[in-house]
């Protein structure tokens, strides 16, 4: 048996390849589902997973109220471009573990994963300010207005008193609040004029 006790030779040519200082994963993409039923299935899965991990999720729903270009309604191409930009902006303004879904063409749902210490109403207000307003498409300024509503399971004083709503119940509550938000005083005034 031969044992070499001398130090290994080191080559004079050492190639140095710089490594990135920090590898950051890409942010999650916007998920698209064609119908509210498709979103309900995804939301049920996310709600179950969050609850198994001890989180208290909330649901934020939003829909397009209006999109105008210089006092006229936007066309389909402009609507699609602005909603794509708004969806990307929404994805960038929520936490990376929150799930953002575009439902059909004009509606979005956000599963806010852990809202135990936060108020969904405050998140809604912040997003309303950040997402509504002016967007530019092909050198035209478009003004976007959104309806938003949220729902979450109510929390009682003790763990045993906690009301655990199902995904379907939370989705119905958020959707009903979204529909009521969309009607508002102007729509109510129009309905009362038609009755008279």
TrEMBL record:
Tree of life domain: Bacteria
Domain GGDEF as annotated: residue spans: 55-191
The species this protein was found in: Roseateles oligotrophus
InterPro entries from the UniProt entry: GGDEF_dom, Nucleotide_cyclase, Rev_trsase/Diguanyl_cyclase
Protein name as annotated: GGDEF domain-containing protein
């Amino acid at each position: 048996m031969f044992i070499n006790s001398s130090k290994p030779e080191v080559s004079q040519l050492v190639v140095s390849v710089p490594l990135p200082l920090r590898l950051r994963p890409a942010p999650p993409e916007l998920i698209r589902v064609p119908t509210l039923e498709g979103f309900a299935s995804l939301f049920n899965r996310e709600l179950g997973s969050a609850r198994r991990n001890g989180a208290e999720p909330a649901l934020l729903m939003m829909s397009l109220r209006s999109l105008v270009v210089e006092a006229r309604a936007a066309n389909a191409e402009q609507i699609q471009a602005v909603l794509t930009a708004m969806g990307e902006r929404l994805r960038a303004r929520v936490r990376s573990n929150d799930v953002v879904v575009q439902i059909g063409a004009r509606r979005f749902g956000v599963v806010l994963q852990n809202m135990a210490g936060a108020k969904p109403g405050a998140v809604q207000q912040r997003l309303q300010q950040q997402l509504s307003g002016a967007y530019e498409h092909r050198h035209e300024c478009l003004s976007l207005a959104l309806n938003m509503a949220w729902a979450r399971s109510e929390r009682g004083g003790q763990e045993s008193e906690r009301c655990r709503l199902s995904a379907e119940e939370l989705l119905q509550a958020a959707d009903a609040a979204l529909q009521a938000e969309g009607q508002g005083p102007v729509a109510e005034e129009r309905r009362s004029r038609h009755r008279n």
